[in-house]
Amino acid sequence: MIGRVAGRIDYRGTDHVLIDVRGVGYLVYCSERTLSALPAVGGMAALYTDLLVREDLLQLFGFPTLVEKEWHRLLMSVQGVGAKASLAILGALGPDGVGRAIAIGDWNSVTAAKGIGAKTAQRVVNELKDKAPLVMAMGAAPAPMPAAPDTGEVIETASVPTPPVPPSPGAQAEALSALTNLGYTPGEAAGAVAQVAGETPEATTAELIRAALRRLAPKG
Q1: 46, burial (CB in 10 Å: exposed 0-12, middle 13-18, buried 19+)
Q2: Same structural domain for residues 44 and 75?
Q3: What is the DSSP string of 11-35?
Q4: What pLDDT does 61 receive?
Q5: Are 105 and 127 in contact (CB under 8 A)?
Q6: What phi and psi, each to the nearest 5 degrees, are found at residue 9?
Q7: Residues 6+ apart with CB under 8 A from 192
Q8: What is the mean pLDDT of residues 98-125?
Q9: Quick one: 57 and 74 in the same domain?
Q10: Pairwise CA distance, residues 86 & 28, whole Å
Q11: Which of 44, 123, 172, 220 is 20 to 30 A off residue 78, Cα-Cα?
């Protein structure tokens, strides 16, 4: 399976790009957010990819980071969410926004994606709430687009596995880890950290932990 492509952009469509990798063109479908971040035709680009295999179709979907690719795979596991819907959600919210919406149960934010109704948005939040903290801990913020070599390359995951994403050293990831070590469930920790981070994005790890603990403290 193809896990990453890197080369020259030969063509840009409304929902995909054609990347020339040593003379072979790979058609890669992307979200609007990813497409807007890619260079113009003739520029070099690199994308992590997920291959969708159907009886009559093979499609590559591209992502700037492994974290976003993982969100795509999780979103696709939700009933009623196909590849197109997943890209719409990621394009509307970005990986950080998806994690925050799921962690705090804000399904209404998910409906900002084109073609996503209330019922589907609620399923996304309900089915992924227990899985979201792990992905959020992979990286609280998107990493820069991986650099593309001038020669172009395509990596087959069968022979060269996609490297795992290490835990992010960011404040949100550290706060999540600290709270779970204190005995809070991943869902509780992720929800509290996401709420605090949304209100004070510049907060340090210590500030996030203190504010999240106040939210998690029993009321009354």
Answers
A1: buried
A2: no
A3: EE-SSEEEEEETTEEEEEE--HHHH
A4: 96
A5: no
A6: -75, 120
A7: 179, 184, 212, 213, 215, 216
A8: 92
A9: no
A10: 15
A11: 172
Tokens standing for residue 91: 């394009």
List CB contacts of 25: < 8 A, sequence separation 6 or more: 10, 18, 19
CATH number of domain containing 106: 1.10.150.20
CATH of residue 19's domain is 2.40.50.140
Q: What angle do CA 203, 209, 173 make, to 5 degrees?
A: 75
Cα angle for residues 134, 139, 141 (degrees, 5° grid): 135
C-alpha–C-alpha distance, residues 147 and 15, integer Å: 21
Rounded Cα distance between 65 and 49, Å, is 9
pLDDT at 219 over 70: no
* pLDDT at residue 166, as a whole number: 36
On whether the CB atoms of residues 191 and 179 are closer than 8 A, the answer is: no
Prediction pTM value: 0.70
